Amino acid sequence: MELLTRDDSSFKLYVSDTGLFVTMMFMDRPSTENEIYAKLLSDKLPANLGYLYENVVAQMLTAAGRELYYHTWEKENSTHYYEIDFLLSKGTKVDTMEVKSSGVGKHESLNAFRNKYSNTVGETIIISQKDLKKEGNLRFVPVYMTTFLSERRNSEEQTK
């Protein structure tokens, strides 16, 4: 059995001011701030915005009083890794969250984590800009509802 522990030497960094983060991401480009924000808001920014969405979700979870944890592990016979963006404890279970900035069809890491730790996984959630829905054991949640997921969890934990 594999022992899971917290590793303080391996971490991700997030910026608490998302507006500043967007500006920092694109400040080396010749565009003005107004053009960047206009393109971002109209979904016409030519960039992978996964890190921006992940940063926003991290802010929402932190603001709701949740500690941020993620998990990576090696894929067999590969130089690549699986990664779960956020792990949230919920009683004796762990909810897994993957943040997607565009397509939600690929969720290989969530499936692999659920298979590997099936006894400890609670909900499996994909957070994206898509509509709220449930497919099998996957729950799809729009980014703006992340706060409500955290509040519900906090309420459940306080009543136990």
**Helix content range of the residues, please?**
25-40%
- Beginning-to-end CA distance, first to last residue: 29 Å
Biggest sheet descriptor: 5 strands, mixed
Write down the overall geometry.
Answer: globular
Strand order across the largest sheet: 3-4-5-7-6
**Whole-angstrom Rg:** 17 Å
Chain-averaged pLDDT? 78
* Helix/strand structural class: alpha/beta
Q: Please indicate the percent range of residues in DSSP E strands (runs of 2 or more).
A: 15-25%
Order of helices and strands: HHHEEEEHEEEH
Alpha plus pi helix count = 5
The unreliable regions are 152-157
Number of strands: 7
Q: What report would you give on this structure?
A:
- This protein is an alpha/beta fold.
- The protein has five helices and seven strands.
- The strands form two sheets. The protein has a five-stranded mixed sheet with strand order 3-4-5-7-6, with helices on both faces. Strands 1-2 form a two-stranded antiparallel ribbon.
- The protein is globular and about 50 Å long.
- Residues 152-157 have low confidence and may be disordered.
Ordered list of secondary-structure elements with their pairings:
Elements: H1 18-26, H2 33-41, H3 50-63, E1 71-74, E2 81-84, E3 86-90, E4 93-99, H4 108-116, E5 121-128, E6 133-135, E7 138-142, H5 146-159
Parallel strand pairs: 4-5, 5-7
Antiparallel strand pairs: 1-2, 3-4, 6-7
Q: In short, what is this structure?
A:
This protein has 160 residues and is an alpha/beta fold.
